[in-house]
From TrEMBL:
UniProt GO MF annotations: calmodulin binding; glutamate decarboxylase activity; pyridoxal phosphate binding
Organism: Dipteronia sinensis
Reactions catalysed: L-glutamate + H(+) = 4-aminobutanoate + CO2
Name this protein carries in UniProt: glutamate decarboxylase
tRNA processing among keywords: no
Domain of life: Eukaryota
Keyword DNA-binding: no
Gene Ontology CC annotations of this record: cytosol
Amino acid sequence: MVLSKTASDSDESIHSTFASRYVRTSLPRFKMPENSIPKDAAYQIINDELMLDGNPRTQKQAVGVGTVGSSEAIMLDGLAFKRKWQNTRKAQGLPYDKPNIVTGANVQVCWEKFARYFEVELKEVKLSEGWDTPIHVDAASGGFIAPFIYPELEWDFRLPLVKSINVSGHKYGLVYAGIGWVIWRSKEDLPEELIFHINYLGADQPTFTLNFSKGSSQVIAQYYQLIRLGFEGYRNVMENCHENAMVLKQGLEKTGRFNIVSKDDGVPLVAFSLKDNKRHDEFEVAEMLRRFGWIVPAYTMPADAQHVTVPTEWKEWQEN
Ligand SMILES: *Cc1c(COP(=O)(O)O)cnc(C)c1O
């Protein structure tokens, strides 16, 4: 992993883990720590904590669940939305057999899966103001970017209509594949009837996931990244990604052959199209780059911009 900025107070090298201030002063319990800590300290803290965690006492306050990724998170959350809506309609004596969900035209395929699997009509509308409807934020990538480099952007529970948020731990959360998260604003937003209570593991354990068993390694890895990097570490990584994207963009512009179609702010990626695609198109560019080991997907755009194809390049936070 490459971090561009490494000089800060918390990066001083401390070799005696147990003597270090990182292990002696406790970390905030429900927040990401502000600063990074050395890897040995992060490891030791988690290791000690897991040892003490032999009995599965569950956190009943938490209204959220770890999932395999954002797709599972979105299935569960969509289901919660649907059930809550149905319960409200039933109570009002109104029909509840035709739920719909409104999305933008550019949503990830998991939303179409959700709609088809759970029999909810998917409606695409042009976004406009003035709606009073509960909102789910699909923050699969952005959820681990915006808080660190666009803290003033209001997209989360600061907005009263936002009821739930998902994020992929295995994207900008910096964990290897197999982890996502979904959180609900309050217990009221997750109908109790969807939660199963089991005691197979010795204590009451509420579960709301599609799969029952799941490895804990990604959860631990996410925890490790959060406390090891802290807020400053994630901010450094995201700033670095953004700077890389800007370098890439400038390089592409310098060739004079491409139109940049992505905005500078947002997910750190560069989307571009060919200025002149009479002789070669974006799919050929993608194909040629692939021969050199660069995976640069070429996409067609949503319905009203079908004529535009765009290869997107981004520099991963990790080097392979
Ligand atoms: C990646 C992505 C998903 C699906 O997430 P997985 O973690 O791959 O299941 C959903 N929505 C958006 C916006 C995504 O970028």
